[in-house]
């Protein structure tokens, strides 16, 4: 259905547009540019809507976990609709608020910091495959690209902390810098494990390498790396229980304490977009992405039944379900675990996770070299 | 055509940001311009179809090294005035070093290696070509010993840096979490029964 919509837009909107407006020599190039823009919008608009409703989901889920109701008043057209209008009302409120730039702040960097934190988490979506065919940029070094971009998110935090010219913000930035650098190593090693197991840096190939059945997915042979990847993802996104960069009880709100209005909400969007990114990557790298968990369990003939076969067989809906599960884990952890103490975070990153990943890399390499079934035969 | 536009764009950004690293008065701004310079050079590497090196440059230098660098620069209370002192006095030394570097670069770039057939014959690969695989094969077969030696030197350097940092003269205040977890209430807390204190003149109610 998505393909049909894309074909329709491409043929009835973009083709006439380019034929009328662009000189004949550049028409094919212009068409490619416009089609890419449409594809980018088709990825980014759902991502940003998900970001908005992820904040709503967080308040609801944590509310129910703590025996509260959560937001339930703001709706549409006089109906409260379980508070579904809340994210939109919040967005409007934040947009009309004034952005106060503190005295002594470094103006240009102060404005740039939120943008720097949102841009990489959005840019990383360029290489995320949603299906066998649906991917914006099918590049060879996709995994490396994602790792590089997630490591850039720290700059928004550091620059915000420094440019605000505030003690609390600066302390938050320092904590965050140390934490992200430490956990990036464990995260990188976990991804190297995936690379060894799949034999490719291309995300689509990595998912294909997991096909077979639910036990062929990499969560089983790479179980320690899977756990470490997700926990490092928690730490990289500065989420509870690793949210010392914000640490309300000690440093008020950490790096974004001086920010208000839209500048603050861009930080917020970056954090949530990063969480969704980590979730979708966990689903792709360790849980078979768009592959169906029923594959290899029910006979293959089931997948060729009309409608039911499409639902049970592989497809983007499985990727969305798996991603939603990991997104739920982020919220669940926040409601469950108390915040780690700072030295414990450092100890966990350097003395526990990195040794485990190195050992497991050796194990995975041995499994691959000796062609251990059912994964690597 | 488009490749040339991209090349000149990123070269311009690279030269500009590299200049700003030297010129900027604020060390933080200088460090941020250095990051921009890394990005621009990474983009130029991408033009040369060296995607592994380009992304690794961003991952290692921008994602890790410069974060630590900024960390240190932000913590230090660098005084702009004192670092500017003696500009005239050091100028001749600086100029002579710069001239030396320009001459050395000129000799390298102007040598036979970059002229003629060798320079023109940069291979164009198709989209399926994996730069990462090529590099890995070269490093682990042809240049295995050099690679292993470099790795060993780095390992020694890491151990040396850590052992220097953990000098025994300093008092180490780190806490052992294993012991900490097993602390019992009676080891830390003493509950005492006593009568309420009263001020003089107050009746003991």
Structure description:
The complex is a heterodimer of chains A (377) and B (205). By secondary structure, chain A is mostly helical. Chain A contains 13 helices and no strands. The longest helix of chain A is centred in the first third of the chain and has 39 residues, at 27-65. Chain A is globular and about 65 Å long. Chain B is an all-alpha fold and 205 residues long. Chain B is 70% helix and 0% strand. The longest helix of chain B is centred in the N-terminal third of the chain and has 25 residues, at 51-75. The model of chain B has no long low-confidence stretch (mean pLDDT 82). Chain A binds chain B through residues 109, 139-141, 144-145, 147-148, 151-152, 154-155, 158-159, 162, 170, 173-174, 177-178, 180-181, 184, 188, 201, 343-344, 347, and chain B through 28, 32, 35, 51-52, 55-56, 58-59, 62-64, 67-68, 70-71, 74-75, 128-132, 174-175, 177.
C-alpha geometry of chain A: globular
The most extensive contact between chains is: A-B, 28 and 26 residues
Overall number of strands of chain A: 0
Q: Strand percentage of chain A, roughly? A: under 5%
Set down the secondary structure blueprint.
The complex is a heterodimer of chains A (377) and B (205).
Chain A: H1 2-21, H2 27-65, H3 86-96, H4 107-123, H5 142-163, H6 167-198, H7 203-209, H8 223-236, H9 248-251, H10 261-286, H11 308-312, H12 316-336, H13 342-369
Helix pairs in contact in A: 1-2, 2-3, 2-10, 2-12, 3-10, 4-5, 4-10, 5-6, 6-7, 6-8, 6-13, 8-10, 8-13, 10-12
Chain B: H1 2-23, H2 27-47, H3 51-75, H4 80-84, H5 87-109, H6 116-120, H7 131-142, H8 144-165, H9 177-181, H10 185-188
